């Protein structure tokens, strides 16, 4: 059986979630009540029997490292392989690499020493459930140099304007990679490539003064290299703005959308925190809401997502909102279309109302 190793490349991802990325990179942003965005990427790799994963992180990675620790939650605390969190460490005075190629160059030993025959490279902004073994089979059958993963989106959203799109022929070969806002073949920032060929690409790109492996080494070499397209047909969300984060989070309140992402046979793993079950007072009224453990609820909550340890006071009203860990909303406060980052406090009687298309965001540890 061919082995696969994983690289989660956060180097080129911009922190576009405004207040939610003041103190953390986008991959560490909490999502869906108890997870971080990177949990979905690394769980896909674990579920695909990938036993060696490297994370390329350049900035604001303290929260990410605290969350991932040694990789135990994803069964990656191994004697061979396992999880490697690789922040910047440029010690080679002769290094001419730039951009994300710095990470590939300075950590080339991860690629050269792995026992895997193939490497999956992925970002963290595409939330989905995918088996990379299926992608590998498509890659081998096509005889391609690289296989990229895409989603055929039925209804384009503003976040898709920032994503690359694909033009694909009838055989599944990629003919062009572009930014056409009318195209619905959205590149999911995932590709699979043979280990030795990846090593060659990195060296060649650096020798020619390139700065981005995918843009310069893969996209920039069309049509000289054979790029195969693999269509992902399951659940998919691209999160690269506050608006896309809010909309795609609340989609999970739909049972079918939730079950399509959180499959029983393909679980999403995260850092384990042992807390008591949530408590619902007689005065509480909670409808159509995701509630994590450790919450204390005395008020009215509807169409919302509550993370661990949230406290809702008596008479408080929470609608269409996302309340992250350990936030406290005191009595008679009103929140609608609001995102509260971790450890926020909303005083008694306070009213915060955002718009459905532009939620009101409160940064981490704020008191209002």
TrEMBL record:
What Enzyme Commission number(s) appear in the record?
2.7.7.27
* Domain spans labelled Glucose-1-phosphate adenylyltransferase/Bifunctional protein GlmU-like C-terminal hexapeptide: 283-351
Domain Nucleotidyl transferase: from-to ranges:
19-158
> What superkingdom heads the lineage?
Bacteria
Q: Please give the CDD domains that the UniProt record associates with this protein.
A: ADP_Glucose_PP, LbH_G1P_AT_C
Q: Which UniProt keywords apply?
A: Glycogen biosynthesis, Nucleotidyltransferase, Transferase
Q: What class of enzyme is it?
A: transferase
Q: Where are the transmembrane segments?
A: none
Q: Which GO terms describe its molecular function?
A: glucose-1-phosphate adenylyltransferase activity
Report the family membership.
Belongs to the bacterial/plant glucose-1-phosphate adenylyltransferase family.
Name by which UniProt lists this protein = Glucose-1-phosphate adenylyltransferase subunit GlgD
The organism named in the record is: Halobacillus campisalis
Encoding gene per record: glgD
């Amino acid at each position: 059986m061919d082995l696969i190793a994983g690289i989660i490349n956060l180097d080129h991802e911009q922190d576009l979630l405004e207040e939610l990325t003041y103190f953390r990179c986008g991959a560490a942003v909490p999502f869906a009540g108890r997870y971080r965005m990177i949990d979905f990427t690394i769980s896909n790799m674990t579920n695909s029997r990938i036993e060696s994963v490297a994370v390329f992180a350049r900035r604001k990675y303290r929260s990410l490292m605290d969350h991932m620790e040694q990789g135990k939650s994803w069964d990656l605390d191994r004697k061979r392989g396992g999880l490697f969190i690789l922040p910047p460490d440029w010690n080679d005075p002769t290094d001419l690499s730039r951009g994300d190629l710095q990470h590939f160059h300075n950590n080339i030993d991860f690629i050269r020493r792995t026992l895997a025959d193939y490497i999956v490279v992925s970002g963290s902004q595409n939330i989905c459930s995918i088996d990379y073994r299926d992608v590998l089979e498509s890659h081998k059958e096509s005889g391609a140099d690289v296989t990229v993963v895409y989603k055929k989106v039925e209804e384009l959203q503003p976040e898709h304007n920032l994503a690359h799109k694909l033009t694909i022929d009838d055989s599944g070969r990629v003919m062009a990679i572009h930014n056409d806002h009318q195209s619905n073949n959205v590149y999911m920032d995932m590709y699979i490539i043979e280990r030795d060929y990846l090593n060659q690409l990195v060296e060649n790109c650096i020798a020619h003064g390139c700065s981005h492996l995918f843009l310069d080494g893969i996209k920039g070499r069309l049509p000289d290299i054979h790029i195969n397209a693999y269509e992902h047909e399951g659940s998919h969300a691209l999160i690269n703005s506050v608006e896309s984060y809010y909309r795609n989070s609340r989609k999970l309140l739909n049972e079918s959308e939730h079950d399509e992402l959180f499959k029983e046979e393909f679980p999403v793993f995260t850092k384990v925190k042992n807390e008591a079950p949530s408590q619902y007072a007689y005065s509480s009224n909670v409808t159509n809401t995701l509630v994590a453990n450790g919450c204390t609820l005395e008020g009215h909550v509807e169409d919302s997502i509550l993370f661990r340890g949230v406290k809702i006071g008596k008479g408080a009203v929470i609608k269409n909102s996302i309340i992250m860990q350990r936030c406290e909303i005191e009595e008679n406060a009103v929140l609608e279309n609001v995102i509260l980052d971790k450890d926020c406090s909303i005083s008694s009687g306070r009213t915060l109302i955002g718009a459905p298309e532009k939620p009101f965001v409160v940064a981490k540890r704020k008191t209002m």
